[in-house]
Amino acid sequence: MDHEFWHERWQRGEIGFHRAQVHPILTAQIAHLVAPPATVFVPLSGKTLDMKWLLDEGYQVVGVELSAAAIEAFMEEHQLAYTCTQQGPFQVYQAPGITLYQGDFFELQPVHLEACHAWYDRAALVALPVAMRQEYNQHLQQILPPSAKGLLITVEYPEGYWKGPPFAIWEAEVRTAYEDRYQVHSLPSQPGFIEGGDSQVLEHSYLLEPKA
Ligand SMILES: C[S@@+](CC[C@H](N)C(=O)[O-])C[C@H]1O[C@@H](n2cnc3c(N)ncnc32)[C@H](O)[C@@H]1O
């Protein structure tokens, strides 16, 4: 999954991961972690409608996304008046309540996320092959404030059912990645969504709360 893979997907409009509705797990769960006007980090954000829902609820949003096309589509589809400036390795798109860093997640530093109270990971961790996931989990924990809480959604499906992305991630992997620093609350799985997928897919979500 190099950068070119994702740029090409955006260029060709192959964005089956993009949902036409706000994710019901976000709307049901985020208030259990943080209340508006808390700042929520959305890694590998695409142009998800979830960010608009968060803004409309009164949350502040910080995102990171490789594709400028995705970020500009988000701003334009929601008619947000935005500015764009260069800051180090990022083009920074800003509109009231939202800052989207266009560039590589792995270039983010703690200073970029110092205002964040929570993060929301849907189709970010599962977008990465296993070799990158460990690095992603470590970097995420290094750049977030230690008090930040997480809402993570993974997908699960039988081996051989789908090539990925999204990749199936089982609870043991989530616990290995997060349990040192977070209480990992597993929520009941529910029928999931993969472009062209069917009932063999489950979505499994987790609330991650820093250990005292
Ligand atoms: C599967 S999509 C999910 C998008 C969004 N979370 C959603 O729910 O619609 C993964 C996104 O991550 C972006 N991406 C992949 N690798 C990235 C990286 N290293 N840094 C920033 N964004 C990245 C891709 O361009 C793509 O938009």
UniProtKB/TrEMBL annotation:
Compartment list: Cytoplasm
Report the SUPFAM superfamilies cross-referenced here.
S-adenosyl-L-methionine-dependent methyltransferases
Identify the main location: cytoplasm
Q: What GO terms fall under cellular component here?
A: cytoplasm
In terms of superkingdom, the source organism counts as: Bacteria
Q: State the UniProt keywords alphabetically.
A: Cytoplasm, Methyltransferase, S-adenosyl-L-methionine, Transferase
Q: Which residues bind S-adenosyl-L-methionine?
A: 10, 44, 65, 122
Methyltransferase keyword on record: yes
Q: EC no.?
A: 2.1.1.67
One GO term under biological process is: methylation
A Gene Ontology molecular function term of the record? thiopurine S-methyltransferase activity
Gene3D superfamilies referenced in this protein's UniProt entry, alphabetically = Vaccinia Virus protein VP39
- Describe the reaction catalysed, as an equation: S-adenosyl-L-methionine + a thiopurine = S-adenosyl-L-homocysteine + a thiopurine S-methylether
The family annotation for this protein states: Belongs to the class I-like SAM-binding methyltransferase superfamily. TPMT family.
- Return the protein name: Thiopurine S-methyltransferase
What gene is behind this protein? tpm
